[in-house]
Amino acid sequence: MKNLHIPAICVHEYGGPEQLQLQEVPVPVPAKDQVLIKIVASGVNPIDWKIREGFMKHPLPYVPGVEASGIVTAVGEGVFGKKVGDEVYGAVDGSYATYAVTPAELLFRKPHSLTFEEAAAMGGAKTAWGALFDVGRLVKGQRILIHAGAGGVGHFAVQLAYNAGAYVIATASAENIDFVTSLGADEVIDYKAAPFETQVSSVDIVLDTVGGDTTERSLQVLKPDGLLVSIVQMPDPEKVTAAGVRAQWGGTKTLAAMKEVHKLLDKGLIQPYVRKIFQPLSQAAAAQEYSKNGGAGRGKIVLKISEV
Ligand SMILES: NC(=O)c1ccc[n+]([C@@H]2O[C@H](COP(=O)([O-])OP(=O)(O)OC[C@H]3O[C@@H](n4cnc5c(N)ncnc54)[C@H](OP(=O)(O)O)[C@@H]3O)[C@@H](O)[C@H]2O)c1
């Protein structure tokens, strides 16, 4: 496929959704230990519009997107365990394109029980696993408050904490209470009806996936020496000390976390949910705006790029 060109979304300057330009780029060639995949669906994450707006100094130009599902179409030197035709999902930098390369070890076999759109939503599980277990050390019997239990990360966090035998309390809008309960939450708090800190107390761990004032308001619902794990922002350390609790950054993701998540998926113990599907690739701007504006629904936003 050398010298061929493929459609991709490119960002040349930081800014609004108009910076997402559909253009032709050379088809990437897999290097050592990489595979080339035909992308069927890309996950759409809040980090995508944050990078586009310049919150992180990502090198320009770039193709957005960090995760996808698709079909292996070429393998680089040294790749074991993946072959042309495999249906896969996992971490893929530059996933808003019809083809992309990624290290083979970051991809997992897509279970037949999942659609490609569902498989593209799995990245939130990896984040949730890292925050709950690698950082939070969550164990059976602990009380955990998970913010945004219907969100792309939160809906996995609720399922993972439930599977670990924790007592799970989650926040959600009224219309998502049934959904979050069905994922395994023991209690679901309508955070719009009253401040969550008036409805919950004495938790061992808070998983903050919301940020803003939710981060520091969460300090009051922890037990003494309880732990706030945030994947969005860190609270003022003086306020953490004054509250007699601890806080840690939870945004660390590892290959080990991906492997643990894949095992649970294979056993049918966790299930990805898709909030809304945008298609085709030219709808990338609409998908990012939906993510930024908190578009209604449950689970992850997905950009459908190709048919199988
Ligand atoms: N550091 C990392 O590695 C990492 C990785 C992934 C994500 N993140 C960050 O984590 C955050 C969440 O990501 P995501 O993909 O889960 O986002 P998302 O799917 O866009 O989250 C949307 C959810 O947030 C809920 N929500 C909004 N305001 C809320 C509030 N005040 N209290 C409780 N819930 C609220 C909404 O619930 P209702 O519809 O029920 O109201 C909605 O379900 C983002 O800021 C993202 O950038 C960080």
TrEMBL record:
Q: Which SUPFAM superfamilies match?
A: GroES-like, NAD(P)-binding Rossmann-fold domains
- Domain of life, per lineage: Bacteria
Report the Gene3D superfamilies cross-referenced here: Medium-chain alcohol dehydrogenases, catalytic domain, NAD(P)-binding Rossmann-like Domain
Q: Which InterPro entries match?
A: ADH-like_N, ER, GroES-like_sf, NAD(P)-bd_dom_sf, YIM1/Zinc_Alcohol_DH_Fams
Molecular function in Gene Ontology: oxidoreductase activity
Pfam families reported for this sequence: ADH_N, ADH_zinc_N_2
Q: Which residues form the Enoyl reductase (ER) domain?
A: 15-303
PANTHER family attached to this UniProt entry: ALCOHOL DEHYDROGENASE RELATED, RETICULON-4-INTERACTING PROTEIN 1, MITOCHONDRIAL
The identity of this protein, by name, is NADPH:quinone reductase
Which organism is this entry from? Chitinophaga arvensicola
